[in-house]
Amino acid sequence: MDFLQRLYIITWAAMAMVATAASAATVDSHPAVPSVYYVRHAVSSGPDAGDETTLSGYYEAALQPASRAGSQLRVLPIWSQQRDATGHASYLMDLDPNDATEAAQLAVLAEGFSAEATRSGEFGALRAADQSAWSALSRKSPDAAEALLPRQQAAGLRPVRLPATVAVGDVLAGTLRIEPHGSVETTLSVIEVTPKAVLMELSVAGPGAQGDGRLVVARGDGMPIELRMEVRYAASKGCPLPSTACTWQIPGTTRCCR
Fold it and tell me: Is the full-model pTM beyond 0.85?
């Protein structure tokens, strides 16, 4: 089968880690301190295609209280750059506040994106935290609004719902959303457990998608520490290239407090 290959090398250098992560169940009373992640995505149609595009940047992420006594993930872009296959780079800081469309983009990015936990404990799709700013951008430039979320989504930077007790050999099912492709099913097989972290092998399956990788999450809140993942999407009308891959990582084992 031919596949569209996208390689997202998401390198999170979490600049600060909460020394003792709060349980996801206590997010309402003890909101987590935001961590800063360095993320790098590399997207290509194959390892030798010569068309790799990379997006790298710093993102602030934290679990926060949400409506109805739930929780939400907040992702805030701090700095990013996108480099195309020719080597041309564009930066978040290139956005001009004196340009109406780019000012509308900056208004959205100033508040970042959020995803609320569903009843099953999974986190839904990211949406702009400031919906008024998002509506204004969508009216001003639908194309700019459509492109903004896939560029700034920090794919994979999502908490994993861990059971109260977790042991080697446990298998956890979940979902992962990657724009613009939507959600895929994930299977996480626990291969090592420490007092602070859980290491898991990851497999991905979905309509026209398959992949694998490894993931380390904090034991207390399920927030990622490191992920390396490749996802391959089948060629389609919207994605005509032959193959996709995704990898992300937080070097080290610490996320620092701000």
Answer: no
